[in-house]
């Protein structure tokens, strides 16, 4: 645990990446697995994770992300895209996967599937879209923690125009919406932000014990 906390103190939102340094395939696969293993409500994982390596696409995205240089300088750009109008089909897919993985007859899982459908499909579409978007933050959190363990820098980003990114990546036709982005790579030695002291609330200000 001490190492984990040390790595959390080491990480920060990198402002300038070293464009000459690339994440290895092995480390990228580890980060992908960390994202895949992220917890989600009901275990549904109602999102897709787009790894944008194409430099031309990243150059197109940059203006829609307030011109942030990390978009094009980082080793990789990841877009977390929540599923729109999530409903019965996504629930059925989980139940099918659960049946195959755990070798449980589908009929035994029907009550769980019905529970999810009753709780989710009755919600207005906007509420469901908001819910699926929130799920992506769980995946981002796991990515941040796993990357810190590998000493890989990550900059989480909400500062972009989702509609533009959706259009550039063709997400709408896939029933997806860009909810979060993250740039991954290695900090540049000229990035002064890495030397700033971490600013967080004190325990007294943050925690309430009842």
TrEMBL record:
Domain Nitroreductase: 10-186
Cofactor or coenzyme needed: FMN
CDD domains in alphabetical order: NfsB-like
Highest taxon listed in the record's lineage: Bacteria
Matching InterPro entries: NfsB-like (IPR033878), Nitroreductase (IPR029479), Nitroreductase-like (IPR000415)
GO function terms (MF aspect): oxidoreductase activity
Leader sequence residues: none
Swiss-Prot/TrEMBL keywords: Flavoprotein, FMN, NADP, Oxidoreductase
Family membership noted in the UniProt record: Belongs to the nitroreductase family.
PANTHER family tied to this protein: NAD(P)H NITROREDUCTASE YDGI-RELATED (PTHR43673), NITROREDUCTASE (PTHR43673:SF2)
Name of the protein in question: Nitroreductase
Organism: Flavobacterium xanthum
């Amino acid at each position: 645990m001490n190492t984990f906390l040390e790595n959390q103190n080491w990480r920060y939102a990198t402002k300038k990446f070293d464009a000459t340094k690339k994440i290895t395939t092995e480390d990228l696969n580890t980060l992908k697995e960390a994202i895949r293993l992220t917890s989600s409500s009901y275990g549904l994982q109602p999102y897709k994770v787009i790894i944008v390596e194409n430099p031309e696409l990243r150059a197109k995205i940059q203006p829609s992300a307030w011109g942030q240089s990390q978009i094009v300088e980082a080793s990789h750009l990841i877009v977390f895209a929540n599923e729109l109008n999530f409903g019965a089909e996504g629930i059925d897919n989980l139940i099918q996967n659960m049946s195959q993985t755990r070798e449980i007859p589908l009929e035994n899982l029907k009550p769980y599937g019905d529970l999810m459908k009753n709780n989710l499909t009755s919600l207005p579409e906007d509420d469901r879209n908001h819910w699926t978007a929130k799920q992506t933050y769980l995946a981002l959190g796991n990515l941040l923690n796993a990357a810190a363990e590998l000493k890989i820098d990550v900059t989480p980003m909400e500062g972009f125009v989702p509609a533009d990114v959706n259009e550039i990546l063709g997400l709408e036709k896939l029933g997806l919406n860009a909810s979060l982005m993250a740039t991954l790579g290695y900090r540049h030695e000229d990035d002064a932000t890495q030397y700033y002291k971490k600013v967080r609330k004190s325990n007294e200000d943050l925690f309430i014990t009842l």
